[in-house]
Design brief:
6-stranded antiparallel sheet; Rossmann fold; 3 domains; 510 residues; alpha/beta
């Protein structure tokens, strides 16, 4: 699939699939299995309803639903009209959701239970379409207005497609502007790198308010002619029974999910023969955890790396070539990756200075248009076409990208730079550790020192002292955690990453 083909197919995706194979399966969730023709009809109906509400080119449709087929129908319907979509996390508080609605200028909000979620909010500032029953979509309810004639899909690569709001760990969340060309290029790159074809069946377990779930989990297989099954809320105890029932060929997840699956009781021996690959993103995955999962379940994990600002992914370990656990792979086709050296020069994977550590930069047609309404932040993030990621990395001798840590997560102990990921990898190497996170804690003499949090595998009884001994054998003295605290569970953000700001806040409060 070429970038151009994908770009021309986003707005009329439902039509093209229905014309090619009307009865073939397209989308499914726990409530329904929809053929290509079913999806086309629902998309047309939703588009008519949106148009009757005044939605057209340049407008924004907000959708606040759990993972359901209706969310993807809403996406395709809005694009058919030339409108953009901003997906809202259903777990947000009214004030948080109101910020996204107001900042995006959404004209219509599609949600599951009407405006009740906004109790206490001064104004929604958008028409609310409440979907009260499973598989109800705008346009198929009695009484819906359907007076607008379908004028056909609006095809414009430069039109805004998605407004993805960042997690907002500092200040208010920002709207990442991705146009159709960004999304189309990303889908084509993902299909190429992951070898996605019409034979593929994606099991979607990541949230659809995140770009990974939209692009890698949904649009890439649909554009390639494959199909998507949307799972209910992830539950490690039932995940493999879903795999055995629906027989997907791949799924995408975050390290936390792989850790939970690897910790299942030994008597869980699922049939994973339908899976050709599992994809890992959102956060670096320790090599030990990758090996543990692959050995137990017989499914190769392909680890990649990217940001919402880069439409999802920028590097990936090759499916057909050498996979190197502990790295996030090679640049995806059509993208350039560089390391920003201390002297301001760009070090690429072809440079003789391989091994230089610095900020990771990304360039390609997938790089965002900018942050909505924030020109200064956009200018500071995208410089001469290069996306400055805020991640620290280096290239190894084979040109694979190794992530060292986040710039903002680096701990400076008495003038010594410490990267938490190095300590976390050591903790993950202990057989009893399920998850690990290291943050900087204030210190009167050294400024800050490493403070480690861990959760243990079920049944493990290892002490903090034993974990400290484990670290002492593998780390220089100045890198040793000042304290290791065991938690029953790690705080997580909406995407499933360990919430380090929450851990830091707890330290500050304590």
């Amino acid at each position: 699939m070429s970038f151009a083909t994908a770009s021309a197919s986003l707005s009329d995706l439902a039509d093209r699939r229905a014309a090619a194979a009307p009865g073939a399966p397209c989308l499914a969730d726990s409530a329904a299995l929809l053929s290509n023709a079913d999806v086309r009809d629902r998309v047309h109906g939703a588009a008519r309803t949106f148009a009757d509400l005044g939605v057209g080119r340049g407008d924004v449709v907000a959708v606040m639903l759990p993972n359901r087929v209706e969310l993807l129908v809403t996406l395709l319907a809005a694009w058919r009209l030339g409108a953009a979509v901003t997906p809202i996390n259903p777990a947000l508080t009214p004030a948080e959701a109101q910020h996204q609605l107001t900042d995006s200028g959404a004209k219509v909000l599609v949600n599951g239970d009407g405006a009740s979620v906004f109790d206490g909010v001064v104004s929604v500032a958008a028409d609310v379409l409440a979907l009260k029953t499973p598989n109800e979509v705008p346009g198929d309810r009695p009484g819906d207005r359907a007076g607008t004639r379908d004028a056909g899909p609006v095809v414009d690569p430069d039109a805004l497609a998605l407004l993805i709001y960042t997690s907002g760990t500092t200040g208010k969340p920002k709207g990442v502007m991705l146009d159709h060309a960004n999304v189309a290029a990303m889908c084509a790159m993902a299909a190429d790198a992951l070898r996605v074809t019409a034979a593929d069946h994606s099991l979607l377990i990541l949230p659809l308010f995140h770009v990974n779930g939209i692009v890698v989990g949904s649009l890439t297989p649909l554009l390639a002619g494959g199909r998507v099954t949307i799972a209910d809320r992830f539950d490690p105890s039932t995940f493999f029974s879903v795999v055995e029932r629906v027989r997907p060929t791949y799924f995408s997840a975050v390290p936390t999910i792989y850790a939970m699956l690897s910790a299942l009781p030994d008597d869980v021996v699922p049939d994973t023969s339908s899976l050709r690959v599992a994809i890992c993103g959102a956060a670096p995955m320790p090599a030990e955890l990758i090996g543990r999962f692959e050995t137990r379940f017989g499914v190769p994990i392909v680890e990649g790396y990217g940001l919402s600002e880069g439409s999802c992914a920028s590097t990936v370990n090759p499916i057909d070539g050498r996979r190197k656990p502990g790295t996030v792979g090679l640049p995806m086709p059509g993208q350039q990756i560089a390391i920003l050296g201390n002297d301001g020069t760009h070090v690429t994977d072809g440079s003789v200075t391989v091994g230089t550590v610095g900020e990771v930069l990304i360039k390609g047609p997938n790089v965002m248009r900018g942050y909505l309404g924030r020109p200064e932040e956009t200018a500071a993030t995208v410089i001469d076409g290069w996306l400055h990621t805020g991640d620290v990395g280096r290239f190894d001798d084979d040109g694979y990208l190794v992530l060292v840590d986040r710039v903002k997560d680096m701990i400076i102990r008495g003038g010594e730079n410490i990267y938490p990921k190095e300590i976390e990898n050591v903790l993950y190497a202990h057989r009893d550790v399920l998850e690990a996170a290291v943050v900087g804690a204030p210190h009167p003499t050294y400024g800050e020192v490493p403070f480690a949090f861990v959760t243990l595998r079920p049944g493990a009884v290892v002490t903090a002292e034993a974990l400290s001994d484990h670290c002492r054998e593998r780390l220089a003295r100045y890198k040793l955690p000042a304290r290791i605290e065991r938690l029953a569970s790690m705080p997580k953000n909406a995407v499933g990453k360990i919430d380090k700001p929450a851990l830091r806040s707890g330290l500050a409060a304590g």
